[in-house]
Amino acid sequence: MDKILLVIGDGGEVMDTFGPFYRLGEDYEVVVAAPEVRLYHLVQHELEPDWDITVERPAYHLPSQIAFRDVKPDDYVGLVLPGGRAPEYLRYDTDLMRVTKDFFAKKKPVASICHGIEILAAADVIRGREVTTIGKCRYDAEFSGGKYLEQSVVVSDHLVCCQGKKDISPWMKTFVRVVETYRASR
């Protein structure tokens, strides 16, 4: 069974993580990667009517199976970058940057949702690409040379981006098509 690498860290958004985890687990072996092999704390983000920003609450936990430093990108047919606050910190991990750049160099399928764009921006792999993300990450995309589009899901070659939780179903449906196209071309 082909493997998909799912990136997590403390503060990762629970729906952005478990949506792909369970959907992709139907057809692929999903391998959870993080800075270290341990249990990670995911969070739930909600918009509250009397708040100007997203409210963050503790959610489920998820153990990682492999540390970024031990990831061999050639073992995987896809990479998923969930959102939440985790990417704000994960983008400083040099091993994750190595893995992300390798996927792009080899034109392997990559999926990004919400704040996942921060990892792509830090890896300098979206320059000249059309992308989408939540509105508050638009500048991360644009400052890194991406062309931000205000739409639910955007496909740019092997990269499949979506804005947020409401887009998980079409995002995963599109990503699976991109992965299957990649697999057929190998």
How are the SSEs placed, and which strands pair?
Elements: E1 3-7, E2 12-13, H1 14-24, E3 29-34, E4 39-47, E5 54-63, E6 66-67, E7 78-81, H2 86-90, H3 94-105, E8 110-113, H4 117-122, E9 130-131, H5 138-143, E10 147-148, E11 153-156, E12 159-162, H6 168-185
Structure notes:
- The protein is α/β, with parallel strands linked by helices and 186 residues long.
- It has a single domain (3-185), classed as Rossmann fold, CATH 3.40.50.
- The protein is built from six helices and twelve strands.
- It has helices at 14-24, 86-90, 94-105, 117-122, 138-143, 168-185, and strands at 3-7, 12-13, 29-34, 39-47, 54-63, 66-67, 78-81, 110-113, 130-131, 147-148, 153-156, 159-162.
- The strands form three sheets. A seven-stranded mixed beta sheet has the order 6-3-1-7-8-12-11, sandwiched between helices. The chain has a three-stranded mixed beta sheet with strand order 2-4-5. The protein has a two-stranded parallel sheet with strand order 9-10.
- Helix 1 (14-24) packs across helix 6.
- The radius of gyration is 15 Å and the shape is globular.
- The protein starts with a strand and ends with a helix.
Short recap of the structure:
By secondary structure, the chain is an alpha/beta fold. It has helices spanning 14-24, 86-90, 94-105, 117-122, 138-143, 168-185, and strands at 3-7, 12-13, 29-34, 39-47, 54-63, 66-67, 78-81, 110-113, 130-131, 147-148, 153-156, 159-162. A hairpin with a 2-residue loop joins strand 11 (153-156) and strand 12.
